[in-house]
Amino acid sequence: MHSNQEINLPETIDGWKMEGPPQRIDHTTIFDYMDGGGELYLAYKFKSLLVYRYNREPEEEMLVEIYQMETPDETFGLLSLDWTGEPVDLSSAPAVRSENPVCPDYTALYGEGLLRARADSLYLRILASRETPDVRETILKLGKILAGKSPAQPPPAILDVVVPSTDSAWKIRQDRTAYFHSHLVLNSLYYLSHENILNLNHSTEGLLICFEKKERQSGSQPAKLIVIHYPEAPAALAALTSFFQSYLPEKADQVDLSPGLLKTGSTRVEDGWLGWTLFGNYLAFAFECPDQKAVTDIFSQLNFKTIKST
Amino acid sequence: MKIKKEVITRRDFLRGTAATALGLTVLPDWLKAGTGKMGIKSAADQKSLVLVVRNEHVLDSSQKVDKKVLEAMVGEVMTALTGEKEMKKAWLKLFSPKDVVGLVPTSVMNPTHDELLEIVQESLLAIGLPEANIRLAQGRSVDLGSITALISLPGLKAHWLTGIGTVIKNYILYSGAPRNYHYEDSTKLGEIWHLPSVKGKTRLIIVDALLPVCDRGPQFDPRYRWPYKGLLAGTDPVALDAVGLKIIQTKRDELRGEPWPISPPPISIEAADKIYKLGHSRLENIEIRTMGWAQELLL
């Protein structure tokens, strides 16, 4: 299913009855539907939303939200905000999954009456007011109706820029990898500044990846890697300049921010070592590294040349 | 290189200088004079008082509210706040039968339980307020001019744009432009409490912490709701948010088994204290008085 306009949900299912036609939401009405929440979907290139409601006696409700996003990458991004939950398979075809060392390969996650799933360019949320084993079954049935025939989608290409090294002392926490475009989303995952100091917008793609020591010591914090892909190299350089002005103003006069292909460096700040590297239209930062070597080690797992078209 | 204007960053929070970075530049002209702490402090030590009342029987196994138990919890709140054991006297200490009282619940993400609203409404009726003078006062189109007293009744929850979305944020719709108070502008949430139609009217705050939500949202995820079975109460909106934040943060860390900081940091709490002088944000300036069920108190 490629569009939420092609949806044909059953009027009744397992004793649940659909309540009227679906509510149709677009970008002009999303704030009426979820005040304070529309920004999230708009940040992921939202096109439209269909909301179906089912009821069952006594006083049970089920909400089926079908978000139409511009591309499958956006649905990946929404799911990547929280990889926890029980992975479930909604596909009617045998699962063909490619191993990905950077993030989980789940396409649907269930927990306590809430199903979140991605299917092509659709993002699904099915929420029941009360969870029981039979409610879970109904939710999964609806999920399979909506997502069962969707072709498997690869994760966004930007993930290929991270090439984990078996020799490294650091390993990726796959369940913390997130894909985003917006500083609001980044801030909800890892706070940098209330202002948009990396000049993020719909034309940029971002990854947040957490690394932890293979021999993890109790109480140690994971290091965070942020990778941003800009539409062109001058935009990446401008973002690095903005970052220095806002985040490292004491260093802003000491680093070379003139145009050039590669710029890299590191410095110690309040929560550990902070590293930056600029390569063409890619910009990456490593935060909360325990030492300078960790910055180098984490950056060594980046291979910007693996991306074919930048 | 020309240095940009000061922006608040992660480093400001690490250094404890976020409040300094905020400065007074966000204070509008109409607010620059006359701000003062709005909360009522414990008489003995000038700390703000926050009551945490819990009862393990207030929810059944399907999370339905036992209204009688909740009513008893509200009674404990009123007695502790006013010193009066008799309920009518306790309510009359804060409200007059001549008042027009606006009840301000939370309507989204983690809605205030109807039973709590009913109990407050019934208590006001019992001291002689006419039904017409007890109004639901959440929303953009509330006639605040005719309301003489507000009771804030928010649900305890984290918020994806402001970190926490409980007491200080509960009046956001009174601004008429809620989107102007998200992101970096959440620092300004405190100014809404100084609007002429709002200032000084909040006589009681009861936070519905029966089933708080510790994840950011923006949409409800049942996995992050848990039966805390409590009410937080007092009159200092900042202190109540600070205590609510502590409970939510502790629950998050417990869920993950490692630090899981609320993000973005709820800067509105510190700004409400340091800039808008609405109350105390630091736990050392808050007296937390706990009553009832003590298991998993998270404080």
Task: Give a structural overview.
The complex is a heterodimer of chains A (about 300) and B (about 300). With about 300 residues, chain A is α+β, with helices and mostly antiparallel strands. Chain A is built from 7 helices and 15 strands. Chain A has helices spanning about 30-35, 40-45, 70-80, 135-145, 185-190, 235-245, 290-300, and strands at about 10-15, 15-20, 25, 45-55, 60-70, 85, 110, 115-120, 120-130, 170-180, 205-215, 225-230, 260-270, 270-280, 280-290. In chain A, the strands form 2 sheets. In chain A, strands 1, 2, 3, 4, 5, 6, 7, 8 and 9 form a 9-stranded antiparallel β-sheet that branches. A 6-stranded antiparallel β-sheet of chain A has the order 10-11-12-15-14-13, with helices on both faces. In chain A, β13 and β14 (about 270-280) form a beta hairpin. The longest helix of chain A has 15 residues, at about 135-145. The radius of gyration of chain A is 21 Å and the shape is elongated. In chain A, about 40% of the residues are buried. The mean pLDDT of chain A is about 90. Chain B has about 300 residues and is an alpha/beta fold. Chain B contains 7 helices and 9 strands, in the order ααβααβαββββββααβ. In chain B, a hairpin with a 3-residue loop joins β5 (about 155-160) and β6 (about 165). In chain B, α6 runs antiparallel to α7. The longest helix of chain B has 20 residues, at about 235-255. The N and C termini of chain B lie far apart (about 45 Å). Mean pLDDT of chain B is about 90; it is low at about 40-45. The interface of A and B includes residues 36 and 194 of A.
